[in-house]
Amino acid sequence: MDYKKLTDEQIWKLISMGDRTAFGFVFKTFVKEFFKYGCKFTKDKALIEDVIQDTFVSLWKSKEKVKIEKSIKFYLITAFRRELIRRISAERKFDTIEDCADTYFIEHSYIDLLVQHQSSIQMNEDLTHALSQLTARQREAIYLKYFVELSYEEIAETLDMQVPSLYNLIMKAMKALKLSMKNEKLLVNLK
């Protein structure tokens, strides 16, 4: 069966009826993306792998009870993020999710994706600097929107925000990026 041609609803129906092959397809489809996303929160690869594994095991165990109303990807990434932050918080004894989110960092592959069509090394450095000026929450929202390709509604739910607040967060982040990039270009031109 070609699972790529099925809708999320159809795949989930198969999984909820115990189709291990459909479940394996979902795992293979998202595991690398979730690992990469987890690396935004921690460098502990073993922890990320454990949380991914536990997220999928938990889903399999509760497959008959779980109702996936949006997308499988959205459901899984939300569950994965929640559990990863819970475990990081427990390890580091953070008081809030925001404290944990402050550890969110930019990896070079993330930057490379943003500037893949740019040949200039300077542009890459400018973008790295511009992204580092954003808050952790802004970087995460941009990542979820443009790289994980979640909808605004899904991102808002994942980040436990209202949709209008998310619009503002992303809009401010994009303005800050544009301004920072413009300022970097001015500095380079003055040299």
From TrEMBL:
Residue ranges of domain RNA polymerase sigma-70 region in the record: 33-92
Cytoplasm is among the record's keywords: no
Transcription keyword on record: yes
Gene3D superfamilies in the cross-refs: 1.10.1740.10, Winged helix-like DNA-binding domain superfamily/Winged helix DNA-binding domain
Xref: SUPFAM superfamilies: Sigma2 domain of RNA polymerase sigma factors, Sigma3 and sigma4 domains of RNA polymerase sigma factors
CDD domains the UniProt entry points to: Sigma70_r4 (cd06171)
Secretion signal span: none
Domain RNA polymerase sigma factor 70 region 4 type: from-to ranges: 125-177
Keywords assigned: Sigma factor, Transcription, Transcription regulation
InterPro entries listed in its UniProt record: RNA_pol_sigma-70-like, RNA_pol_sigma-70_dom, RNA_pol_sigma70_r2, RNA_pol_sigma70_r4_t2, RNA_pol_sigma_r2, RNA_pol_sigma_r3/r4-like, WH-like_DNA-bd_sf
Superkingdom as given in the UniProt entry: Bacteria
Record family assignment: Belongs to the sigma-70 factor family. ECF subfamily.
Name of the molecule in the record: Sigma-70 family RNA polymerase sigma factor
Species name: Belliella filtrata
